[in-house]
Amino acid sequence: MSVSNNRDSFGSKFGIIAAAAGSAVGLGNIWKFPYITGQNGGGAFLLIYLLFVFLLGIPVMISEFSIGRRGQRNVFGSFKAISPGTPWYFVGIMGVVAAFVILSFYSAVAGWTLEYIVKSVTIGFGNQSTQQLGDAFQNFLVHPIRPIIWQLVFMTITAYIVIGGIKNGIEKYSKFLMPLLVFFLLVLCVRSITLPNASKGLAFLFKPDFSKVTIKTVLFAMGQAFFSLSLGMGALITYASYFRKTDNLGRTALNVSLADTFIAVLAGVVIFPAVFAFNIEPTAGPSLVFITLPEIFSHIPMGNLFGLIFFILLAVAALTSTVSVLEVVVAYFSEELRINRLKATILASVSISVLGVLASLSFGPLSDIKLSGKTIFDMLDFLASNILLPLGGMLIVIFVGWYLNKSTLFDEVSNGGELKAGYFPIYRFIVRFIAPLAIAAIFIYSVFYGSL
Length: 452
Ligand code: PFF
Known about the structure:
Bound molecules: 4-fluoro-L-phenylalanine
Largest sheet: none
Number of domains: 1
Number of strands: 0
CATH architecture: Up-down Bundle
């Protein structure tokens, strides 16, 4: 019997949006977006980022949806089903490799959020200096066991949801967790914009200062759009293989991208007013969330409660993303090795955790292992974000734009002619010409000029 006959599927439109937006909304929005925006000039970066989301992100997302729904298999199997006898399945293998790599370092950071949830309810952040908060973060990072335990706890929760399948696992939890995330984010927004000097932070985020824009800013914005929208490795190809034939791919891509962008901007609205209210540098970088924010929580009334809400929010955002990355590997193992979901999930999460532990340890005991100046963690991040995702994204648009014929592609995005899909000519022009060239530009840049 063919695997596609008895495949699980999503049960509702809201479930699809919640799961796909859950994949997109993650550490990339709440941890990475604010600090990259802070380091790249604020409003001007935001504007360029928005341009990439709409011009490139949405077309690439529609392409991934089309491949997955047409293929009705995991990322590797979908390419094989659509283009039998060609080597395009290689793009699927790259996707599975990228999933391994991303999950190994992403789960490390996701684990840190659990440490900080516990911290907010136990010792709290009250009256510690920046130095103390920084040292506490550093001591935790280099600890040989603590970060690993949290990482494994996070992987176990991820695996638990994935074992439940699509309708009774991923969809069920996304439908509950995503509204919770939006609610927490709104609570924090209100708290932040009512702080003194909040308007300075909002001006930093929304007033474009184009004197700060360089070619690097543009390329950073493009890389961030890919990572944030979960593009280039088949997470959305895999999810779309569980969509129904009546689901509107164009509209879903638009909604998911809008939700992802809205949440990234809201995260900026939470963070920048707070940063300016306490005269902290907005360019603090990756430590913005784990050192700077605790400093803010230590100063405001009910800071521990707001800290708790913030770190739960971060954990929830990370969880719906790790679930989507693990599903790429689980779908691949279960369909290609023909093993059941439980076995596939155990196999995938245990093997990813082995690599993940190495990523965690590279902050402490393994910090001396370096390749061209990068620790294991940095190497995995670099390999995924700067090589595998852009390359995967480029091959995906080339596949859809040049390999698939026009009528097949139209058939897929229009649900066999049921929908008008009036955007089709522009969409196809972008995936044939603009997207491959633009992505090739970041790819070449990141290979030659280092990390994005
Ligand atoms: N989009 C996620 C984030 O912004 O945190 C990260 C991610 C998830 C990247 C799934 C790639 C992926 F396939």
